[in-house]
Amino acid sequence: MKRTRVKICGITRLEHARAAAEAGGDAIGLVFYRESPRYLSIRDAAAIAESLPPFVAAVGLFVNASERDIRAVLDAVDLDLLQFQGDESAEFCARFARPYMRAVRMEPGTDLLEYADRFSRAKALLLDAHVPGQPGGTGRTFDWAGIPRDLPLPLVLSGGLTAANVGRAVREVSPWAVDVSSGVESERGVKDPKKIVEFIRSVQREDGHSAS
Predict the structure, then answer these.
(1) Which of 170, 180, 100 is nearest to 138 (CA)?
(2) How would you write 168-204 as a 3-class SS string?
(3) How many helices (H) and strands (E) does the chain have?
(4) Residue 140: pLDDT band by 50, 70, 90 thresholds?
(5) Which has the least CB within 10 A, 93, 118, 137, 185?
(6) Catalytic residue positions?
């Protein structure tokens, strides 16, 4: 049975990390981008990462951060995976001796096979909607039909996912994982535990239907 993994991104509170883990989430995202409403201080991020139970991963999201700033985070926060959401090169992403995934903002003409070749050391490509001036968390979807089926890296699908449409996303795209942020919020930057549970249940239901 194929199981679609779930990452809840933009966690800012301990209780929301706990809700994601208890509902069956596989990973939580901690945002280290100061312009985001979901930005966390290193101290708060360290507390959330330390609170996670076994087998729930802490993912650190960076947007064109300096090497010095990233290393400062890594010195204090126990991250399992790095997520690069800006214009970072493959060489830069590989500097930190940590597994990483590379975000791709989908727009007409985006060549995912070229991205997969350029970032061949990445653990996955995360596909998100392209909105000028916003590196992520936009709440917008993109056309999934343009995703190649022969992508050589695991695919993490993001961009405008909610409990209402994630089942269709899993069915049509068959991603390794789905990533949600604004789709499980009560207001911008604030997670809603009930929406987190509903989102994860929707993924689990679709996985169950696919196996039957």
Answers:
(1) 180
(2) HHHHHHCCCEEEECHHHEEECCEECHHHHHHHHHHHH
(3) 7, 10
(4) confident
(5) 118
(6) 9, 128
